[in-house]
Every structure is written in C-alpha cells, then in structure tokens.
Amino acid sequence: MKKFNVGLIGAGGVTELHLEGYKGDPERIAFTAICDPNEEILKHRADKYGIPQRFTNLDDFIRESGVDVAVVCTPTSIRKQIVLPLLEAGFPLFVEKPFSDTLSDAVEITEKAKQLGIPVAVNQNFRRHYTFDTVKKIVAENTIGKVTMITFNNMFYRQDTGWRLDCERHALSVMGIHWFDGFRQVLGCEAESIVSMMSSSASIDCKGETDATVQIKFENGAIVTYTQSFSSRIGRTEMIVIGETGTLRCDHGSVELFRNGDREPSQRWENNCSREENSLENIKQLLTWIETGVEPANSAEDNLKIVAMLEAAYTSAKENRIVQLRNGVLI
What we know:
Blueprint: E1 4-9, H1 13-22, E2 29-35, H2 39-49, E3 53-55, H3 58-64, E4 69-72, H4 79-88, E5 93-95, H5 103-116, E6 120-122, H6 132-140, E7 147-157, H7 171-187, E8 191-199, E9 211-218, E10 223-229, E11 231-243, E12 247-250, E13 254-258, E14 267-270, H8 275-292, H9 300-319, E15 323-326, E16 329-330
Parallel strand pairs: 1-2, 1-4, 2-3, 4-5, 5-6, 7-10
Antiparallel strand pairs: 7-11, 8-9, 8-15, 9-10, 11-12, 12-13, 13-14, 15-16
Helix pairs in contact: 1-8, 4-5, 5-9, 6-7, 7-9
C-alpha cells in the first residue's frame, strides 16, 4: 500500500488528536507539512512531532507543500474559506466534524467536491470511541429484538474559550453532531422528524445554547430522546437502547444486556477504542477511497445527513415546530 504524505491545516488542540492517532501507522502515513497563522503554536506542534514543512499562509501551503492529503482542523467558523481553495487545488481532504457550521455551507462544499471529483471524508471519531459500532452489531444480530426507543444523556460542565464563545450554535454543534451520527448507526436508517428546545445558562460564558433536549423519530418508527448539557455539575454520558426482547445500557467503555427480571446484566461487551485510534481508522478509510475509488462510510456525502439533523434541531428550536426530513434531507 502507498505511504501518504499528510499536511495539517490548523495547529490547535484538536490537531493533537490526529497527530497522536496517525503515529499508529507510520508505514501508511507521514507528517510532512503543517499550516497555522499562529507562529508560536505552529512551532510547538511541528517541533513536537518533527514536521519539516511549516507554513503560516494557506496559499503557500497549497503551492509548496506537495502533500497527498490535507487534514483540516480549523475552527468551523472559517471552514468554508479554507476547504474551498484546497478543493480547487485538488487536495483530497480529511475534515474535522462538523465539516461546516450550516447545512447550506455543507451542501456547497460537498457539491464542489463532487464536481471536481475530489474525495472528502469527515472524522466521525465517536463511531467506535463510543459504543455505537458495538451496539449496531448487537442490534443487527437481533439480540434485543426490534428497537423501539433510545434515551441518551450527555451532561457535564464545559466552559470553552476562544472562537467558540462567539458561535451562535454551541452545545449541539460541538457534541450533537457525534450523537446524531451514532443514533443513525445503531438504527440503520435516517431521521424522519425532529423537535427540540434549547436554553443558555448564565453559568457558561458563550453566545450560543448550553443546554438542549431533542426528540427524533426515525424511519423505522424508533424514537430517540437526547439531552445535552454543558452546565451540569454532574457528569453523565449514558445510552439506553430499548428493544422488544431486551435492553442495553451503554457508556464509552461497555455495553450491558438486560432481560426481563434481570437485576444484573446477563451479558457484557467491552469497548476500548480511543478517539486517537478511531481518527486513524477514519483517515485510513479516506486513503483507501483514494486508492480504490470506493466511497467510504465517513464521506462528506454521508455527513450531510448528520448536518441536516443538526440544522433541523436548530430550526425546530428557533421556530417552535417539528421539522420533517426525508432520506436524510430537510423538507
């Protein structure tokens, strides 16, 4: 298999996730360039990981880096203005989630990539980091029968700094994009309707929402109730998957099966995939796409359906109504 020279756009905190993960396959991936306008952060990241080419200007990166793939880790607020020039220059892209703040920008990016024939994949790094892939297999094996309901709570205290403070979309944009994707993986179908409510706690300094509750009806009839909080002093991330013959209790590290009358789980599955490992797996899907032409499960096209769910949730909260979707597209 080919060894790919990879360049990173953005040297902030999330870049560390990629750099640590990619070290797991040095035969496949080499870090050869990095770009960030902040020279101090750029030098720190490049020195730590031995990245030889260093750019403070995107045009210089495009013209001189010579990389095979660009990994985009910039703030979503400037994502489109970074991604479009890279696409025009012909770089296959691996983009941090969500790959755009709004559905309209996401559609524009995806259509441009299709027009140019450039592969774009998104780092859906919670598919295995959380237990979604494990639960997907359990459900597919009919272990708990038909799934009728999922409840999901993600609550903790989070005070962001920097660019996120000025974003009108906050808690759901940061975390919901992961969980929406996970619900799709477990249920194996798309959302049909979404209704949501949001609020902003004075305990958190930010422009957007800190707390939200979302209800989603999926095409197979299953109902998902999802609560997100950035202002809770109690931390909890738990998913309950209710089937007709059993119930699953899930967190990052394990899945437990309960049958009627069980006080203790009758079966347990472990999950030990880090975000770094999952990020490596995700970029390798892009590399295989480049080599084979076969679109992977984390393509920009697939990610559009998740961004559409996010857009539907914000629209529902703003307009106080149920938002309908068909085949993952807003109607």
